[in-house]
């Protein structure tokens, strides 16, 4: 302002403080209550302000200097201040009704339920303790519009305003959930969710197009899984927004770019981490759903966690529970070959074990009485049968071995046609190791079986009565030809015959001793 003009001096920091300072009573030097509703009184007359603009030199404006009356300051600790606010809030809002839409519903293991009540303008954390939660007749879930009664409080540990719910009544589905269901029903009626329009993924892709945020944890998880399961698979990333109003358009741009360059990728993956229904709202966009349905390349949807479902999941050719699971599904064909070889090995081992079990059952049916009665004929017949079983087992094993070798050779040929050179070399080494293991296992089983057969033949021969007679024993028969088991069955002067290992003796009983 030019010097010499008469005008009101501008407000200074001190003058503003003086205008807003409440009246200080001498009889009550302490600070008034935090939530006092009294209007601030004007400053006392004893409070003076000396402005440098009223000095002798009016050309030099200067800020005014306020000289307030000294008053006692009340200093709160953080805990005391938050506690004071909580007490006032609980007394002022002890019984309120609030209507809104549930979001981020999180049932805890303790039985308490935590969620956020929101509308288009604001949101309020809600706590429903276990005792009140047990009285509910419905299950709170995201997107449900409810009417909640409770009291407003402050959670002191975080200084957060929250409503402690006493009762809750449903008011129908929220706006986001209702829009989701309506769009889902309309697209389903158009056939965009039909299984016959979904395409299968290529078994051995060379490159995958990933539409995701290049700085998030999702792309790092995908890279980790792919490098562990299929190191030669390439990833081409299209950076896109995974949240917000512009998210659907950036994802659509990524799908369009990959379809415009089909020679670069074999399929497309849309990946995003978990979040609330609001965070995933961009993937419930109708234009994005139609872009996925119109894509020439197969699309895998890997959005959120296993419990999260979006419209993009229903339209995509394949829905993966998580981004990491999507990477595993894409590289699954690489591991199926190794699983097939292991399955063939297991089937061969089971067949050999079953054949051995049948042989043991046949041997168990041989009783000691039948061996004693028909020893000579049955012994030769059993030995012949054992030889036949050994030959058949050996032939069957070799036939199975040749069959599996032929199948392994066929798999090797198919791998040579479909896989790169490095993967073929790796598969060949695995097949060689499996073949060597099969040969060692077959040889070991044959040796074990021959040993058991020889041992069984030896035991059968040891049970032969002829072998007992060779050790010096004899079979004593009466004149009628019956076998004598006790000396009391004979009488003095009776003629008896003794069957030895070679030949028969005839004798007369002279004396009987019973001991």
TrEMBL record:
EC id: 3.1.11.6
Pfam families, alphabetized: Exonuc_VII_L, tRNA_anti_2
Enzyme class name: hydrolase
GO biological process: DNA catabolic process
Keyword Cytoplasm: yes
Catalysed conversion reaction: Exonucleolytic cleavage in either 5'- to 3'- or 3'- to 5'-direction to yield nucleoside 5'-phosphates
Composition bias, Polar residues: 1-10
One GO CC term on file: exodeoxyribonuclease VII complex
Domain Exonuclease VII large subunit C-terminal: 192-507
Residues spanning the signal sequence: none
Keywords: Cytoplasm, Exonuclease, Hydrolase, Nuclease
Localisation: Cytoplasm
Gene Ontology MF term list: exodeoxyribonuclease VII activity; nucleic acid binding
Principal location listed in the UniProt entry: cytoplasm
InterPro entries reported in the protein's UniProt record: Exonuc_VII_L (IPR003753), Exonuc_VII_lsu_C (IPR020579), OB-fold_nuc-bd_dom (IPR025824)
Spans annotated as Disordered: 1-55
Residue ranges annotated for the OB-fold nucleic acid binding domain, each copy included: 76-169
Family as reported in the entry's similarity comment: Belongs to the XseA family.
Subunit annotation: Heterooligomer composed of large and small subunits.
Known role: Bidirectionally degrades single-stranded DNA into large acid-insoluble oligonucleotides, which are then degraded further into small acid-soluble oligonucleotides.
Family annotation (HAMAP family): Exonuc_7_L
NCBIfam families per the UniProt record, alphabetical: xseA
Listed name of the protein: Exodeoxyribonuclease 7 large subunit
Protein source organism: Granulicella aggregans
